[in-house]
Amino acid sequence: MSERTRKELLLQYPGVSPFAILKADMQRRAITYTPAALALVDPAIHQVEYVGYNIDKKDLAIPCSLLLRDGSTVMAAPFPGKANPYVIDALDGKPAIFDGGEYVEAAEYWYKPAYYSKTTSSGKPMWQVISARPQRLDVNPYNFCHFWDNGKGCKFCAIAANYHKHKHEKELALDPRDIAETVAEAIKQPGRFANILLTGGSITRGETPFDAEVENYITILKAIGEAFAAPRFPSQLIATAFNEAQLERLRNETGLMSYTADLEVLNEEKFNWICPGKAEWIGYKEWKRRLVAAVGVFGRGYVNSGIVGGVELAQPHGFASEAEALDVTLTEAESLAEQGVSVVNCVWNTLPGSVFHNQTVPSLEYYVRLAKGLQDLRVKYNLNIDMDNYRRCGNHPDSDLAR
Ligand code: SF4
Asked: By alpha-carbon position, which residue is closest to atom 5 of ligand 1?
């Protein structure tokens, strides 16, 4: 049976926002920009990247990503080799989304925050210290993941292709002073930011494994905290699954508000194959146990786990059918929801540089049913997902449905 199209799914799932369905499909199929769409980019006001990908001139500015009319953020980018991407073109002098030549929706490019034009006292441009999403500050204090030290990083992840372990670690780490100054400057802009995210690769070192990673985050969170009068500030840490003592330190020594540790795939056997580093250092059952323990530390509604939705269908060891994959994933998600842990889905993209770069992603219907299933679980267990909603993150079609 052929896959249902986006238009068919809009009719079949009237309770799922058409914006969330479009977003999932754009993330799944990627996007491309026409020269007319790129001509609408103004680096003076828009957030841009300077990458080559599928355009002729490598020095052209490409928008970081898009916003939809309902405020949804679409984290989608041009990727080489994608067969059937959505096309961003110009219509009446504005960016618009097209599929197969047909108009789909209006779009907007992300606007640059005010702090992007400032520098820290050490002379570093602030946009290099902290990047911004439409309503979130993204702090990435450490851009290498040591699960790759013995080649056991996650098979969907391209971090090892971008950051090599032979680089000196000091090159990869950010200075807490630069981060503190940048946060203080960024939050001066009225109404712009709702959250601060910290995330980085796993650092296995320490007396207890991952103590070095915890220490790093504590240093940065303390520096960020200087910008706030209240003891706790709107924040999310996406990190390794820490033990109780490490979680207590994060909660007690910093102003951190919420905690995320990504299981990536909700089945032990697939987890062991797809995330061998996580399996080796912590293990699936212990990762889950630590997530539940984190609810005791940060509270219900302040702990969740991300999955790379669809990666459980990677071959040759993934599930053979979408029906089985969905059933197993939602059953596992329910066991976490019962214990106060939300699951949020990132649409799997077969990134260049990842082990899985040649794989095929599932149908759009799979993502629609997964988004609906995860949101239905949150309703059933009265789990609030504001910590990872469209304002605080913007990457999850399922948490967009919580509005
Ligand atoms: S834990 Fe996995 S997904 Fe995260 S940075 Fe390391 S290899 Fe990549």
From this structure: 201
Which residue's alpha carbon is at the smallest distance from atom 4 of ligand 1? Answer: 201
- Rounded CA gap, 240 and 259, in Å? 10
CA distance 107 to 37: 11
Q: Does the global pTM surpass 0.90?
A: yes
Nearest to 348 by CA among 75, 148, 54, 161: 75
CA 51 to ligand 1 centroid distance, Å: 23
- Summary count for the chain: helices (H), strands (E): 15, 16
Residue 251 C-beta-side C-alpha neighbours within 13 Å: 18
Ligand 1 pocket member 261 (CB < 6 A): no
By C-alpha distance, which of 57, 179, 75, 63 is closest to 110? 63
Q: Is the pLDDT of residue 243 over 60?
A: yes
Element (H, E) at 194: none
Which domains are assigned to the chain?
A: 17-109 (no CATH), 118-400 (3.20.20.70)
In this predicted model, what pLDDT tens digit does every residue of 82-114 receive, in sequence order? Answer: 889 999 999 999 999 999 999 999 999 999 999
Looking at ligand 1, which atom is closest to the CA of residue 275? 2
